[in-house]
């Protein structure tokens, strides 16, 4: 069974090695490590680890947090590709086919951000009618009747409890949501990550930067 483990750990030599040793002692095989965020003496890393099917994921949490200063933010099953598409490769593909740019963005964002789905939505006309522009294969089919948080001025975490209304289907399975304006405030790319972890400021910055580049390419 493969899991995605997000950890916060001290940004000092040897800590990641100690974490790898602790996980390895419990039978976990680390398949990849991505640095999500770094600063203030700590780092946030995403680890894709393979565990024997007989072992529970709780073992990963116990082993990781036995290392001094390590905190596990989340652990969830992972079924994504290990050779994840990077921003540059996606941008190159969109540049080659700008007429398919928004569709390719919606399909590519989940792999970049290790999320389940993405969609592009916008409000149009005086009645602020909501229109879905593009979506990935796993995006909820439920259409939004209204999105009062549009227009959007910057990338943000969407929190329905804070009045940022979204369809219930978007938040099923404790889905974390993030959105960024795409070319204009009335259009946004929305990313859903069921079960977490929460989107970090660095991830919002990446999403915003990517959306800005794609908007320029596609016009």
UniProtKB/TrEMBL annotation:
One Pfam family hit: ACT
Database matches in InterPro entries: ACT-like_dom_sf (IPR045865), ACT_dom (IPR002912)
Lineage top rank: taxon: Bacteria
Gene3D superfamilies, per database record: 3.30.70.260
Domain ACT residue range list: 4-80
Protein name as catalogued: ACT domain-containing protein
Organism annotation: Actinomycetospora rhizophila
């Amino acid at each position: 069974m493969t899991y995605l483990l997000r950890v916060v750990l001290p940004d000092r030599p040897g800590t990641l090695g100690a974490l790898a040793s602790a996980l390895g002692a419990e039978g976990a095989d680390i398949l990849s490590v991505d640095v999500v965020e770094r600063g203030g003496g700590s780092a946030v890393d995403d680890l894709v680890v393979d565990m024997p099917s007989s072992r529970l994921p709780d073992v990963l949490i116990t082993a990781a947090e036995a290392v001094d200063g390590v905190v596990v933010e989340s652990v969830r099953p992972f079924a994504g590709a290990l050779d994840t598409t990077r921003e540059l490769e996606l941008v190159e593909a969109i540049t080659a086919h700008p007429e398919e740019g928004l569709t390719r963005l919606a399909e590519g964002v989940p792999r970049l951000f290790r999320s389940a789905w993405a969609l592009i939505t916008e409000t149009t006309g005086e009645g602020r009618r909501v229109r879905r522009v593009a979506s990935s294969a796993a995006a909820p089919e439920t259409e939004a009747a209204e999105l009062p948080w549009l227009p959007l001025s910057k990338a943000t975490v969407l929190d329905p409890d804070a009045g940022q209304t979204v369809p219930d289907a978007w938040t099923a399975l404790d889905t974390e949501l993030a959105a960024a304006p795409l070319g204009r405030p009335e259009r946004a790319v929305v990313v859903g990550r069921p079960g977490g972890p929460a989107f970090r400021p660095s991830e919002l910055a990446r999403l915003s930067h990517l959306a800005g580049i794609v908007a320029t390419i596609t016009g």
